[in-house]
Write a sequence for this structure.
DNA sequence: GATGAATGAGGGTTCATTCAT
DNA sequence: CATGAATGAACCCTCATTCAT
């Protein structure tokens, strides 16, 4: 039976400062493990130990392993939305190329920050029921991009947004796997890919 | 310690007709499970059961779970190479757009055949040591694409080949996740993306 | 590949009273099984069951079956060293025959306590990498005996110590297998064997 | 339930030359495995493979794994009896020291021939029901030794025979484990041990 | 007889989760 | 609330033995 969405919410709103801290420690430990040893090495006992918390406490804050993952995903989505928001904002009055460049760089920075982590979370995301907030964050982000593309006169902006992000994701993921680390070079290729796709579409 | 490559080779060359059948059944069952329930649901007991075979038999033919995965990956790579080979062949005397179109369609068909499976295998592939044959199949495929791009006058064809494939992979994967199934539409967008990227590069 | 020494160390220092108890129960159950049904009947499930503990608990304290064996061996070596130490101490100012008698009796008592167990552990010991403490316990014991023999003017005391212990071990083992239980009689024969060997050597 | 003795007999008296050969191949393969990789590595599939025989055929000749072991033990006992017989024969008219020397050397040669094998078989022997022939071989050997000791005027010759053999076994086993290979040195120490024990007894 | 494919009980180990203290 | 001991379902894999061909 697929796990219910209720089970993905943090068990309690941590009011006390101390609680908020513990909660953050747990998430940080989990991030760390995923980034360094991979998603398959993530297990609740290890997280608790690395967070300096007893396994019992961990279960006070999160109803289960997947809730931790869900929280990480939510966090990632929040960060991402913020980055995109800022990029969109700064690109408000720019031409297509510049606006795209800002978006692409935002996405790229996101992946470069914690390459393995973001990859793993995106995978996990697709195999899990998403809570309402995460879904909202995803739609907000999509709407934002769609808005930009629409304003720039792109046809079928919903689809274009999807494709453009997927392209970037694919290229960046593959480049990272191949060991590339040159931000500027990657940024260049992404811009070319995106503008190429968009240009070809409107041509 | 990362698992040794030896552990990925089939254990026994099936000599009798019966055993060739068993071997195939095991691989088919594994494919099926991955396609339907995901890579994380793959386990040797389930494979054996679904293949209508005892767990002991499974281990006669494969030294372990990962050997089954390795075999599936090898199979996928063989199919893919064959598809690409034929596309390259048919595109021999065509112009850039047509040649690209053939390649893109080959790749697309590949993904559409078993969407979840090919995705999962590609992921698994990146977390496993590859046997010699699989590596050779990958390089052969890469060389083929590089050759085509080179002949078409693309600059830095190695990188372009990587990017182009990664873009396609990204777009297709995302589209499939979103439930798209319209081959022609997808084919169109992929062509646009690829020619856009390549065109922008030479511009 | 021979198992690494790391795998032989207990996993967790028991902190609470309850867990110290569990740990001891596990070792006692293992001892029991070996003593009664033989080394080949030792398996983790049985140990857990007999210890009245879940299999999971067993693995909390021991990283595997061999770690349990290693712990038993260490325990045996500790006891043995203590026994020998006390025998050497009490024999400090005695003549050869008495000193030997004390040592022989110490060794004999050791075997009589848990005949099958000590035999099995000694066998297991020779087929396993030893952790540092166990090795130290063995050398300490050897050094102790060598010291005594040396003080008594025995030539080549290292070799004599080895031979003497091996002789005793052989005789006792065989006698126990044959069902003998008369401590005094055995003690007598061992003294004869040892003094005979040592006497013949110096003659 | 302890396995019945009937199950330890070879399944059929091989009349044909070919059969006898297969049977010997199986036993040779088993010996080899034990000598090189230890008793715990002995398994029927491996034996069959190493013997160049199908697993099915192996079971034609031996009703099970333990029957193979039993056959090896019987063989060992036969050899041993023959060696002892010859040593006793040659020592017929010699003095105690020489007679003992011959016996000791016979035993020593036995162990040196296949150190690990003889050790393993002796261990296996003590954990298995013995068939009539093996038991007879053991008693015959014992009787032979007892006869010699009796003739030489040793008191309680049954016990002395046991002890003497056990001593030798212990010393040789330990020396081999320690890597010694010098036959003459070992022979010397064994003679000293045996004559010391026997001398001390009669003194 | 010979073959080797197939079987499945048995044993090792992990890890998400619960609960007594 | 925190702790960490305990649980046991779920997996992985081996190997003695059987049986259809």
């Amino acid at each position: 039976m697929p796990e219910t969405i209720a089970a993905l919410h943090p068990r309690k709103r941590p009011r006390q400062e101390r609680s908020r801290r513990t909660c953050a420690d747990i998430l940080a430990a989990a991030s760390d493990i995923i980034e360094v040893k991979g998603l398959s090495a993530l297990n609740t006992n290890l997280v608790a130990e690395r967070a300096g918390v007893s396994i019992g406490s961990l279960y006070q804050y999160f109803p289960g392993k997947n809730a931790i993952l869900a929280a990480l995903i939510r966090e990632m989505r929040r960060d991402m939305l913020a980055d995109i928001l800022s990029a969109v904002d700064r690109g408000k009055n720019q031409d297509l190329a510049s606006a795209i460049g800002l978006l692409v760089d935002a996405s790229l920075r996101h992946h470069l920050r914690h390459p393995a982590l973001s990859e793993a979370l995106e995978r996990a995301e697709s195999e899990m029921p998403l809570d309402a907030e995460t879904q909202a964050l995803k739609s907000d982000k999509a709407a934002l991009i769609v808005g930009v593309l629409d304003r720039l006169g792109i046809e079928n902006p919903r689809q274009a947004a999807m494709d453009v992000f997927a392209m970037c994701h694919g290229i960046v993921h593959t480049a990272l796997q191949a060991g590339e680390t040159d931000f500027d070079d990657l940024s260049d290729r992404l811009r070319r890919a995106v503008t190429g796709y968009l240009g070809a579409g409107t041509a």
Chain C has nine helices and no strands. The mean pLDDT of chain C is 91. The domain at 5-65 of chain C is CATH 1.10.10.60 (Arc Repressor Mutant, subunit A).
